[in-house]
Each structure stands twice: as structure tokens, then as C-alpha cells.
């Protein structure tokens, strides 16, 4: 009523004053609205906040506490929602329009990556022209997506501290984060780094004050996260931006230095133990975590990280996430792999003495639901060693070497060409589940024509 009286009074003034006073009144009203819209309980639906109480931090979204039950990936989002997931992580904005819309339709949020170039890939942080182009690209992305209701937070870069020697990259990350805060005060800004030593943590702490949350990609060393954060002096909240089975670079090695991949059941046990110990009953400044990978990818091998195989069958990790997030057991579980025998013994790697030799293999498996099981085996080329991951050619599947490839027991012939190979075994039930195991083997000597 007071506002109506003021407007009425202004309209009675001489015309030369009316326009100016109405403009000032509109400005005052907008300022009042902006202030109240950021008070507790009146935030826009898409706003994400961080609340600190003592030494404890809580992430909020749409005004409610929001612990991240997330995965890395962008497919099968309806299935993720069914399992109790609430968020996905993507590393860049190349298809963000579609992904954000799909996430919104499935009641999920998006941890949206803004890719920054890495020194490890040859980017020069003394090149002002390149830095400016990168900054402007990110600025445009923030302007484009800042109002999307599925947006949870921004993530500046991924693992950019690896092999970084130019301290200016830290300053540039902070400059980008500060710019994001200016354009979008409604969503926190994080950056994702590989958990290695305390050094990148304290450099981010000292040189990147605009970063609200630290995100860590960590696999086998999740038990060391708390100590490393303490050594780095990090007192703000953090997110586990990638976790999962033990990484292929962290696993045990064969004598010829290829990675020994855990079976799907071993991955299940490892992820469960880590999640329950270091994420589920969260440390006071942990805001949640993203499992890598909700999908399928050739990294280490084509079966190492994915929650699904190449045909979309679910590995035991899918049912595990449902159990961890909802506290409800899946109606049906994936086959349980108990081991892989080669020539009658359990082994994780074999160097066969010669080419064209014939050997036997058996997959040991049981199904707790009593489902009938089917099998698929294949042999593929492998890395020369674990350190050649970035140099490798796509693995080649070699046909004609396996007899009985749809049985639990097979015979296989060693390839004629010298090199490193893997024998893969997949076991399927009747409910779209798969269990996996593989054997790394070597054929020594020179190439056989």
C-alpha cells in the first residue's frame, strides 16, 4: 500500500520530474528484490549453496541438504535415478544443452566441467592469446548455462596439476573461478585434481581463493585423503570427483609389467569397502562422490571401470550403488566370479613358452539367484606395459583361437605373433547382468611370420 501511495504522489508531480523519479523507484525496488531473493528460504530453485556449522560443511540445493550420490557419465539416466543416484559429472560443456535437459527430466543435477587446457598436453600458460581465448570460451559457457535448473556447480578443469610446472596455471584457474562468481553467484566453483601429494592442494589453497570446493580424483588411495588434505592445509569442503576400482596404474603387475585387472567381484568388494569407510558416513567436510564410470570405456581395458559392458549389461557395481544409496538390495544380482583357471590353476598372468601351444581355461562362477548362465570368451591384444596407455593402438580382437567360447570351459591356442594379450571371460545371467574376469598373458620371442 505504501508503494501505491508513493507512485500516486509521483504521478501528480510536474512531468519533467515524473520519469526520473519512477526510474529511481524501479531501481530501488529491483535492489530490494535482489537482496531478499538471496535470503535463506527465498533462494531460486536452481541455487546451490554451502552451509558451514563449526567444522562441518553441508551442500544445499533447492534449499535442502544435498549429499552427492553421483556417477561420472551421461547415459542411462533413468536407471541411475532408479538406483538412488542424484547427480552426474561431465568433464566439458560440448553437449551440455542435451545433458542438462536429460538430467532435469530424470531429477538429477549436473556437476558441469569447464575444460581448461593442460601443460601435460602442451598448453603454454605464457601464451596470452591462448589464455584469452580459453577465458572467453569459458565465460560464454557460464553465461549460457548458469540459469539451467539442473546445474549443481561448476568445475574448472580436470587433473590439470599433473606435470604442471608453470605457477601461472594456478593463477589462471583462480581468475576463471572469480569470473564465474561474478557472472553466477548462485552456484559454487570447484576444480578437480588427481590426488597425488599435498603440494597441489596447498598451491590451490594459497593461489586459488576463489575455489569454494576442492574435488579429488582418487581410487586406491582413498584412505589417505584425510591426511593429505590436512598436510595441504585444506579447510574448505571437498568432493570425491572420481572413485572406483583400483586404478590400472595402481594394480599389481605381471613380470612383463602389464596391469592385473581385478574380477568384477573383486571390484565390487573394493568399491563397497571404500565407500562405506570413507564416503557413506561422511567426514565433516565431504559433500559426496562420483563413481567412475557410469557407462563403458576403453581405459586400462574395456572392462576395467564401466558399470556396463559394451552391450549394456550391468556389472555388479550397478546393484552395489543401489544398495549403498537406497539401503535396499537389488531384486536380482549379477553373477559372482570366483576365479579363473588356466591349465588347472588360478593365475593372474602367464608367459607361455611357445606359440601355437594349446591350453585350457575355466571360469569359476556362481549365481546367488540360481539363474541360468551363458558365457562369452575372446582374446585381444594388450599394452606393451602399463606405462604405454597414452601410446597404445586400439586393442584388436583375435578370432579363431578359442574352442567352446560359449562354455564355462574352453581350449585356446596361443597367438602366433609374439606380444602381450588378454583372455577375457564374460558371464551373463537372464536379467541383463554380467560378471567379468581376464588373464594377461605373454607370448615371448620374435614375431612369427
Automatic annotation (TrEMBL):
Q: Per its UniProt record, what InterPro entries does this chain match?
A: GH (IPR017853), Glyco_hydro_2_cat (IPR006103)
Q: Name one Pfam family in it.
A: Glyco_hydro_2_C
Q: What are the record keywords, sorted?
A: Signal
Give TM regions. Answer: none
> Glycoside hydrolase family 2 catalytic domain: which residues?
133-244
Q: Where is the signal peptide?
A: 1-39
The name this protein carries in UniProt is Glycoside hydrolase family 2 catalytic domain-containing protein
Give the lineage.
Bacteria, Pseudomonadati, Bacteroidota, Cytophagia, Cytophagales
Amino acid at each position: 500500500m505504501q508503494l501505491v501511495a508513493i507512485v500516486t504522489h509521483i504521478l501528480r508531480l510536474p512531468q519533467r520530474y515524473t520519469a526520473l523519479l519512477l526510474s529511481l523507484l524501479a531501481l530501488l525496488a529491483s535492489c530490494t528484490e535482489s537482496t531478499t531473493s538471496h535470503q535463506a528460504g527465498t533462494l531460486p530453485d536452481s541455487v546451490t549453496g554451502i552451509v558451514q556449522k563449526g567444522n562441518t560443511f553441508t551442500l544445499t540445493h533447492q534449499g535442502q541438504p544435498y549429499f552427492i550420490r553421483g556417477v561420472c557419465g551421461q547415459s542411462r539416466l533413468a536407471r541411475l535415478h532408479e538406483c538412488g543416484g542424484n547427480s552426474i559429472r561431465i568433464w566439458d560443456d560440448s553437449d551440455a544443452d542435451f545433458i542438462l535437459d536429460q538430467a532435469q527430466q530424470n531429477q538429477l543435477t549436473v556437476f558441469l566441467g569447464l575444460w581448461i587446457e593442460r601443460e601435460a598436453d602442451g598448453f603454454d600458460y605464457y601464451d596470452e592469446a591462448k589464455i584469452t581465448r580459453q577465458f572467453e570460451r569459458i565465460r560464454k559457457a557460464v553465461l549460457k548455462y548458469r540459469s539451467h535448473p539442473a546445474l549443481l556447480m561448476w568445475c574448472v578443469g580436470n587433473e590439470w596439476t599433473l606435470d604442471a610446472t608453470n605457477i601461472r596455471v594456478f593463477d589462471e584457474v583462480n581468475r576463471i573461478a572469480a569470473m564465474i562468481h561474478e557472472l553466477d553467484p548462485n552456484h559454487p566453483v570447484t576444480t578437480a585434481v588427481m590426488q597425488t601429494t599435498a603440494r597441489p592442494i596447498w598451491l590451490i589453497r594459497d593461489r586459488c581463493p576463489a575455489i569454494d570446493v576442492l574435488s579429488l580424483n582418487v581410487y586406491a588411495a582413498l584412505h589417505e585423503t584425510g591426511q593429505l588434505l590436512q598436510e595441504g592445509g585444506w579447510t574448505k569442503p571437498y568432493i570425491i570427483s572420481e572413485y572406483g576400482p583400483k586404478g590400472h596404474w595402481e594394480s599389481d603387475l605381471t613380470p612383463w609389467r602389464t596391469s592385473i585387472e581385478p574380477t568384477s567381484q573383486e571390484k565390487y568388494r573394493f568399491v563397497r569397502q571404500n565407500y562405506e569407510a570413507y564416503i557413506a558416513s561422511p567426514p565433516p567436510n565431504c559433500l559426496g562422490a562420483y563413481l567412475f564410470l557410469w557407462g563403458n570405456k576403453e581405459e586400462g581395458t574395456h572392462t576395467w571401470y564401466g558399470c556396463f559392458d559394451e552391450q549394456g549389461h550391468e556389472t555388479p557395481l550397478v546393484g552395489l550403488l543401489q544398495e549403498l544409496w537406497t539401503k535396499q538390495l537389488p531384486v536380482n544380482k549379477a553373477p559372482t566370479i570366483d576365479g579363473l583357471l588356466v591349465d588347472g590353476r588360478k593365475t593372474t598372468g602367464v608367459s607361455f613358452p611357445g606359440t601355437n601351444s594349446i591350453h585350457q581355461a575355466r571360469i569359476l562362477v556362481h549365481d546367488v539367484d540360481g539363474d541360468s548362465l551363458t558365457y562369452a570368451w575372446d582374446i585381444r591384444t594388450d599394452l606393451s606395459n602399463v606405462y604405454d596407455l597414452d601410446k597404445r593402438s586400439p586393442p584388436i580382437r583375435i578370432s579363431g583361437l578359442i574352442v567352446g567360447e560359449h562354455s564355462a570351459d574352453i581350449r585356446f591356442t596361443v597367438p602366433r605373433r609374439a606380444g602381450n594379450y588378454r583372455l577375457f571371460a564374460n558371464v551373463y545371467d537372464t536379467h541383463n547382468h554380467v560378471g567379468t574376469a581376464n588373464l594377461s598373458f605373454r607370448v615371448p620371442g620374435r614375431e612369427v611370420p
